[in-house]
Design a protein that fits this description.
alpha/beta; six-stranded mixed beta sheet; binds 6-O-phosphono-beta-D-fructofuranose; 13 strands; 541 residues; 47% helix; 11% strand
Length: 541
């Protein structure tokens, strides 16, 4: 039996349209010289060009009708007004309240008052750190800050601190996420504990990796500054009691709330390392950029709505063309962490196989999201994008203006970015490849032998997102764009974008295996592979 989604007339209409329409990008461009103008959306500092996609005016109309049929407008209202959209955890997902400039009521209370209070605390703390007024236990000003956190307590701040490096102040900000001792050693190597402050960022304050790393860093700090090592810590958490229990003073605990999902939390106090690195004004500018995108998402008609269009294109390829992967290719080295950030945002949010109501889905949800910066990727995996057997829709991201003073470098970046999307779209026909080789003077037998290798199928869809420049505002808008894209897709697919039960099983098993690794006798409580691996690494085989 087909699900509510796939039996919708709007879904069926799209399936018919897909079956009966020829989507040839070269032909679509040839037929309409206005295609770029018709298929671009500007919003604030961002421009989305989605003209190199399998879409006609009819496709966009049908996709928008699907969004209507799934009540995307209603769900957006529910999201932003604090309804408990996270049904399995009975919570709202109010990250938009973190950047709102109007009251947002939750259980008869305006939560933005709490946001303003913590923002003021963040400003005081980051200003004091950046000015050198806040000193460590031995009276020296701090020079380095380590953010200890993982997942949503790491990826967003790490992305922003790197992306906004041209705005950075005097403090060096480091990120320690992996429980791998090599990561811990690499971060603290070369740092002076007397001038280092650690921020323990954990919504739950119970994450094994973060607490293990925090304890190791505490021992390292205590070894240098003795029992006053607490003065070298701050905490960001929704579990104030546990942070207090760890020994962090209340004045150094920055609270956020269970209505902020971990992977949507960089707008909360989880953004403290951003404020420390680039200043609170820049952090607030990021929030403003995000708010502009929130307002656009909540009000623009679906066909002119940047996150909605991106969401619908994802559904179009995933569910109607069977494309199981999506690439994110920033032509900006400062956005090199963006694919990692999006992997959590997209795959932890929408990597689900049952609906909000618990019904198994009979359609595909989240694709594999991956990517790396151009031009590096061009010399690594683009071969597959151009000539491989799988078609991978991709987002190319580039800035009009760079922050560096090497204009020729930027021109080469832009040229490569646009060349790749053109090449993916146009490809190279056998006739074109033959003519090219003949013009080079190759003998005709050689031309025919090489021909199959020189043909590019083309017709490979891409979006291009252009930012004016990688400013705090533009970065905020870019991140919010993808947050809303993910939410819009979750509404189409009918899944809960705000829980992550799929991470639990592995955590529980790791807790069970940890003591077994240390045991003296061979382990028998698992399958033979798991038993064997535990015994082998523990030297019991
Ligand atoms: O294991 C997944 C997860 O719960 C993410 O959703 C979250 O961002 C990350 O772990 C870290 O959690 P916390 O901030 O509670 O330490």
């Amino acid at each position: 039996m087909s699900s509510t989604l796939t039996s919708l007339p709007a879904w069926q209409a799209l399936a018919d349209h897909q079956r009966t329409t020829r989507f040839d990008l070269r032909e679509l461009f040839a037929a309409n010289p206005q295609r770029f103008e018709r298929h671009t959306i500007s919003q604030g500092e961002l421009l989305l060009d989605y003209s190199k996609h399998y879409v006609t005016a009819e496709t966009m109309r049908l996709l928008a009708a699907l969004a209507e049929a799934r009540d995307l407008r209603g769900w957006t209202r529910r999201l932003m007004s604090g309804e408990r959209v996270n049904v399995t955890e009975d919570r709202p997902a109010l990250h938009t309240a973190l950047r709102a400039n109007r009251p947002v009521m939750l259980d008869a209370r305006d939560v933005t008052q709490d946001v303003v209070r913590v923002r003021a605390q963040m400003r005081r703390f980051s200003d004091a750190l950046r000015s050198g007024a806040l000193k460590g236990a031995t009276g020296r000003a701090f020079t380095d800050v380590i953010n200890i956190g993982i997942g949503g307590s790491d990826l967003g701040p790490a992305l922003a601190v790197e992306a906004l490096a041209p705005y950075a102040g005097p403090l060096r900000v480091h990120f320690m996420s992996n429980v791998d001792g090599a990561h811990v050693e690499a971060v603290i190597k070369g740092l002076d504990p007397e001038t280092t402050l650690a921020i323990v960022a954990s919504k739950t304050f119970s994450t094994q990796e973060t607490l293990t790393n925090a304890n190791t860093v505490r021992a390292w700090l205590a070894n240098a500054v003795g029992e006053r090592s607490g003065e070298h810590f701050a905490a960001v958490t929704a579990n104030v009691k546990a942070a207090h229990g760890f020994g962090i003073d209340d004045s150094r605990i920055f609270e956020f709330w269970d209505w902020v999902g971990g992977r949507y939390s960089l707008w909360s106090a989880v953004g403290l390392p951003i404020a420390v690195a680039v200043g609170m004004d820049a952090f607030e500018a990021m929030c403003e950029g995000a708010r502009g995108m929130d307002e656009h998402f909540a009000s623009a008609p679906f066909e002119r709505n940047m996150p909605v269009v991106m969401a619908l294109l994802g559904v179009w390829y995933g569910d109607f063309f069977g494309r199981g992967a999506h690439a994110v290719l920033p032509y900006d080295m400062r956005l090199k962490r963006f694919p990692d950030y999006l992997q959590q945002l997209e795959m932890e949010s929408n990597g689900k196989r049952v609906t909000r109501e618990g019904e198994p889905v009979d359609y595909d949800t989240c694709p594999v999201v991956w990517g790396a910066p151009g031009t590096n990727g061009q010399h690594a995996f683009y071969q597959m994008l151009h000539q491989g057997t799988q078609i991978v829709p991709a987002d190319f991201i580039v800035c009009c203006k760079p922050h560096h003073a090497l204009p020729q470098h930027h021109a080469i970046m832009l040229a490569n970015c646009f060349a790749q999307t053109e090449a993916l779209m146009r490809g190279k026909t056998p006739e074109e490849a033959r003519a090219e080789m003949t013009a080079q003077g190759l003998p005709s037998a050689e031309v025919e032998r090489l021909l199959p290798h020189k043909v590019f199928p083309g017709n490979r869809p891409t979006s291009t997102l252009v930012l004016d420049a990688l400013t705090p505002r533009a970065l905020g808008a870019l991140i919010a764009l993808y947050e809303h894209k993910v939410f819009a897709q979750s509404v189409i697919w009918g899944v809960n974008a705000f829980d992550q039960w799929g991470v639990e099983l592995g955590k529980k098993l790791a807790d069970r295996i940890l003591p077994e690794l240390a045991g003296a006798s061979p382990v028998t409580s698992h399958d033979s592979s798991t038993n064997g691996l535990i015994d082998y690494t523990g030297g019991k085989r």
